[in-house]
Structures are given as structure tokens and as C-alpha cells.
Amino acid sequence: MDILPELNYAPKNISHIHIMGICGTGMAALAGMLKSSGFEITGSDKAVYPPMSVFLEAMGITTCDGYGKQNLEPRPDLVIVGNVITRINPEACALAEAQIPYLSFPQALAHFFIQSRVSLVVTGTHGKTTTSSILASCLNQAELDPTFMIGGIVREFDANFRLGHGKHFVSEGDEYDTAFFDKESKFLHYRPDIAIITSVEFDHADIFDDLDAIKRSFKKFVSLLPKDGLIIAHLDDPNVVEVVRDAPCEVQGYGQSKELDWSLSDVRADGGITHFKVSRLGKEWADFSVQLPGTHNCLNSLAVAAVLHRIGVAPDTINTGLLQFGGIKRRQEVRGIINKVTVIDDFAHHPTAVKETLKALKDAYAGQRLITVFEPRTNSSRRAIFQQDYVSCFDSADITFIREPVPLENVAASELFSAATLAKDLRARGAEAESCPDTDTILDTLLPILQPNDVVAILSNGAFDNIHTRLLTRLQSV
């Protein structure tokens, strides 16, 4: 049964809110924000287990394991529907039958938290989690007390959300679709006042047909900016140039090109700190430092600096915020150092992200052997669309292991990514590479070759069979 479009609204006098798909990272954070705002929150999911089950229980939120009509009793005032929920989900069908008002996740975030604040939205194929985290952290360091919702755990707050009393809301503007009843991108609901666009490339092959489809979505987002708004755009990227061409507001470009409004130069790594210079409108403006490796992270920091300048934060305060930013879990995160072997966890999966991440790590750990372990896990990376793109992405690695991915259902074998093919192509470039059928084989093959001062970079957007902890545990027994 279809949910009736006319019920898609938030009623007045809401007390009890029920969340379908509550154990997702973003949905659980939204549940926490709503609970902290005084609402009674219940939720349901098909797999209620740690860490989200523990988090929700600690917040005093009742969760139902599995979906069904019974979860809508007692009748909530509003239901928030996650994008993991399908049209034929039994609880969704019961929701339609009961005609309870409902919202999608991004609609709810906008309705309850964004509309009353200045909306700072960070978008882009790459870097949006890091950039939005840096922005939120710098706003907090500047004592502007922001509210935020981000896709990663920010170390400074040990959370991916925060309810502040300041006027700014920082959101990670995801281009992924909203819900089964709304196939448009999430970021179209975030009412942007100031936006950052870090990059535009093809991704999310399960919902976008091609790069042009992604560009159309970004152009819709750009059209939402008010006339007095601002877009900080990475104009070294021709796709970004295209999507902001008809922007209704001011666009300030940033990048490494000297003619841009904000220009990056003289990137230098020193003892775990990356230093860089910034020019504004062709004139030297400030020197900044960050505890993050790589030019791409300096560019992310530059975009944040441009936003902070717009809202009146002084360069010295910006630099303090950048230097004190402690990073995000699962973004170049050092999980442990055992027997002088450093194990790093990173979320990179798109070819560009893989390439930039490995280059940054090679520079940060100069003179050390970099061993990369890659798990293709996303709907895009498990397809053959990036098969050739990946071939040039591992040049910074000394040794590469690629796990054969779990095949996608209903996708022809000829359209699937092959780890064996990638390993063969890497070897043809003179690289040392090997494909492995599973995580156990990777560990068994990796352990004997590890040497003191090696850096093992594990790239995956999932848990990867807990490979990080298992590797560190086995290193202890060597």
C-alpha cells in the first residue's frame, strides 16, 4: 500500500515521535537530538544491536526489533521514515493504513532543527564529512556554539551530532536519495544559506544513471541558495564550475589556482602537522596548520576558512580552530601501533578518495613502507564502472591487497568488479598486488610480510569483518 503524499507533513502539538530505521547512524543521532529536545521517542529496526542499541538505551529510547503494525501502538503523533525502509515494508504499509503524519529523515532535520538557524551545508562527492567536521569544530572553538549533524564521529565531541545554542547549523549535505517516497537527494531539504561544494564526480551507481544525473541534482541544490547567500566552490574541478554557473548568489572559488578568490600554496608536512599558505583575492592572507595529512585536507580546511571569514571569524581564531581539530573516526584514524607496525582505518572507496588518501599517507609517513588493504563494498565499487579507474589509484602503495567483494544481487557477472583483475592490472604496472577471496586469507598472507615501521592502511566503508582489531591482536602475539 502506498503512503499517501498528502500526509507528508509535520503536525502541530507533537509529543510522541516514532522512527523507522532508528539504528542507522544518522537516524540514531536524530533520535538523540529529538529526545534531548523533549520529545518522547520510540523506534524500530530489523537489527537492533550494539553500538546503536546501547546508545539508544542510554538515551532512554525504546526500540522494537523488527517491523510491524504493533510498533505503531500506542499511536505516535509523527513517524520519521528512514531511507532503508521500502514501500512494501509491513510497518510502512501499516503507517499508510493508519494515516499517521510522517516525514523523511532530512525533512525532519530541516523541520525541527535547521529552519530556525543559519544553515551551513557541506556538499560534494568527496571530503564532506571531514570538511563539515572541521567547520563544526572551528565554530565551537570560536565560541559560536553550533548545532550539527555529520556522518562521522567527531573526536572533539565523541559524537556525530550536537545541540548548541548558537545560530549556526552545520550539516553534511548528502546527495544520496531521501526515502522510497522521495527519490531526490537529501541535501535538497537543508535550506542552505551558505554552502561548500568540494567536488562533483560520478558515484552512487545504484541511484544515479550517470554523471549528468548527479550534476542535475547539484544544480537543483545550487538553485536553493538565497540571493544573499554564498557558495564556496572548489573551482579547480570543472564539474563544480558547471554546477555553480547559474547560481542565484555570490560564488567564491577556492583551490590551488592563483586566480581564485581563495588560493592554497606551499603545503608542507612537518612532524604530523601540515602547514599551508592562503591567498585571498591574489594577496597573501594567512598561514594555517592542521593535524591532518595531505593537500586534499588543506583544501577542505581552506573551504572552512572561507566560510568562517564570511561570518566574521578572524584568521588567528580560524588557525587555532584548525590546529586543534583532532580528526574523525574512520578518516585516516590510527587504530593502533604494535611492534612498530601502524594500523590505519579509512573510509575511502571512490577511486579519487583512494588515490588522495594513499598519497597523503605516503607523504605523512615518508620513508616507511605503505601496505594497503582495500575492500570494495559500496554499490558503486562492487560494479565494474570503476574497474579501470582504480588501476592508477594505488601508486602510492608499496603493496596492495584487494578483497573480492560480495557480489551484488541482480547484477550480471560481466558488470561486477573483479579484485583479481585489478591485482593483475596493478602488477602489469610494476606494482606488488594480490587479490584475496576473504578477510581470513588477507590476514594470513599479510602477517608474515609485516616489518617494523610498516604502515597498513585499511580502506573500507564498512566494518570489514573487524579486520583492524584482528590484525592488531595477531600482531601482539608475533
For this entry, give a set of tags:
single chain, 478 residues, Rossmann fold, UDP-N-acetylmuramoyl-L-alanine:D-glutamate ligase, Protein-Tyrosine Phosphatase, Chain A, 3 domains, globular, disordered N terminus
Short recap of the structure:
By secondary structure, the chain is of the alpha/beta class.
> How many domains?
3
CATH architecture group name of the largest domain: 3-Layer(aba) Sandwich
User: Strand order of the main beta sheet, please?
Assistant: 8-7-9-6-12-13-14-15-16-17
CATH topology of the largest domain: UDP-N-acetylmuramoyl-L-alanine:D-glutamate ligase
Report on the biggest sheet: 10 strands, mixed
CATH superfamily of the largest domain: Mur-like, catalytic domain
Give the overall shape, derived from the CA principal axes: globular
Quaternary = single chain
Mean pLDDT: 91
Quickly name the level 1 CATH class of the largest domain: Alpha Beta
Category by helix and strand content: alpha/beta
Radius of gyration: 23 Å
Are there runs of 5+ residues with pLDDT below 50, and where? 1-6
Structure description:
This protein has helices at residues 25-36, 52-58, 90-98, 105-114, 128-141, 211-223, 238-243, 295-310, 315-324, 351-364, 419-428, 439-446, 467-476, and strands spanning 16-20, 40-45, 62-65, 78-81, 102-104, 118-123, 147-154, 159-162, 168-173, 177-179, 182-185, 194-197, 230-234, 250-255, 262-270, 273-280, 283-290, 333-338, 341-346, 370-374, 399-403, 432-436, 455-459. The longest helix has 16 residues, at 295-310. With 478 residues, it is an alpha/beta fold. It folds into three domains: 5-105, 3-Layer(aba) Sandwich (Rossmann fold), CATH 3.40.50; 116-324, Mur-like, catalytic domain (UDP-N-acetylmuramoyl-L-alanine:D-glutamate ligase); 333-476, Mur ligase, C-terminal domain (Protein-Tyrosine Phosphatase, Chain A). The protein is globular and about 65 Å long. α5 crosses α8, α5 packs across α9 (315-324) and α8 crosses α9 (315-324).
